[in-house]
Amino acid sequence: MQPLPDTALLAPRTLFGRGQIRQLPSLGREWGGRGLVLIGASFRKGLHFKPLKEALGPDCLIVEHAGGEPTLDQAETLRETARRHQAAWISGIGGGSVLDLAKTAAGLFHETVPVAAIHAGQAVQKRGIPFLAVPTTAGTGAEATPNAVLTDTRTSLKKSIRDDRFMASCIILDGGLLAGSPPDVIAHAGMDAYTQALEAGSSRKGNAWSEATALAALRLIAASLPAVQANPAGPEADSLLAGSYLAGVALAQARLGVVHGLAHPLGAFYHQPHGLVCAVCLPAALKLNRQALGAAYDRLSQAVGSDLTAATESLLARLGIRNPFTGQPIIRLPEIMEQTLTSGSTQANPKTIGPAEVEWLLKRLFS
Fold first, then answer.
1. C-alpha–C-alpha distance, residues 182 and 201, integer Å
2. How far is residue 119's CA from residue 160's CA, in Å, rounded to a whole number?
3. Helix 274-293 vs helix 308-319: angle between axes, to the nearest 10 degrees?
4. How far apart are CA 310 and CA 317, in angstroms?
5. What are the Cα distances from residue 155, in Å, to 1, 71, 160, 272?
6. Torsion region of 4: left, alpha or beta (phi above 0 gives left; psi -120 to 50 gives alpha)
7. Which of 109, 95, 31, 30 is nearest to 67 (CA)?
8. d(CA 241, CA 247)
9. Which of 363, 97, 94, 144 is nearest to 251 (CA)?
10. Pair type for strands 89-94 and 35-39
11. Which of 176, 177, 230, 301 is the most exposed place for a label (fewest CB within 10 A)?
């Protein structure tokens, strides 16, 4: 195993702890007075919004995300809004959708081509403006990665755009921001983080650093997720948020696996939350990968405290997660196959994945 990735990607600064959200205004002013902050609806309704808005002042434009999975149109609109405001920096305060949109608008701020052109494969040419990431859910790890997942609503194609220069200039991890999150949001986001830690920890593109980070993330997430679902304001939220961040660090160095390759088209075509799709795909994927995982299976099992497959199935039951695909017809099968097989995540899976393996997974998921 390679000891380190060819390029190690980390944000220059990460703040961790309760109350760190109060540092955002002063951090933003290091790059200029005029900023744009994209927030999620839950943050606007919470206790932190009003004092933060006052501290940011009139030169900072606050925009609320309309909701749902991030789309190319939403990213384009946000970029244009930031340009009109002459923003010197952009922050996202919210879940993965908010972070990916803010990251895209900041990263492509100076690009002359449409966001859709980058999504279609055109290379990023110019460095954007600083992006400050403040996650309010423990799930996607988007604060720690140089990629953003966007959906083209015209084709339902959901995939990442990626450039090392998209990496956040600063990350704020404040466990207090999870308070008030609905139980299903905690469960779905947490299982996304759990899956990312598991897949990054067994990726064929992994290295010693990504594996160690992924195992640390998995330990934190497995131990804290049920408690945070029961009480998002409790102290375990700090551990869950840290685990989600570490899973993001690991996947940025190692990529993922077939669960994420399959989850993107399924989530887009069936309009299901990404974390939920990852969660229900995971048991079958573990069975598919069992032999290829080899000794990694034992290391992952040790991280969760018992046999990995049994622990995962038990966790899903404790969280009340149910498979939304059971008994459903498989729609757009050729597109599901193509998008899964061409995904960079699938290509990093420990077992080589072909059409037969995708069909095997779909049969178990939809039966």
1. 28
2. 7
3. 170
4. 11
5. 38, 11, 15, 16
6. beta
7. 95
8. 10
9. 144
10. parallel
11. 230
Residue 43 has which token pair?
A: 């943050």
Token pair for 208: 């010693």
Please list the pLDDT of the chain residue by residue as tens digits (367 residues): 788 888 888 999 999 999 999 999 999 999 998 999 999 998 998 889 999 999 999 999 999 999 888 999 999 999 999 999 999 999 999 999 999 999 999 999 999 999 999 999 999 999 999 999 999 999 889 999 999 999 999 988 888 999 999 999 999 999 999 998 999 999 999 999 999 999 999 999 999 999 999 999 999 999 999 999 999 999 999 999 999 999 999 999 999 999 999 999 999 899 999 999 999 999 999 999 999 999 999 999 999 999 999 999 999 999 999 999 999 999 999 999 999 999 999 999 999 999 999 999 999 999 8
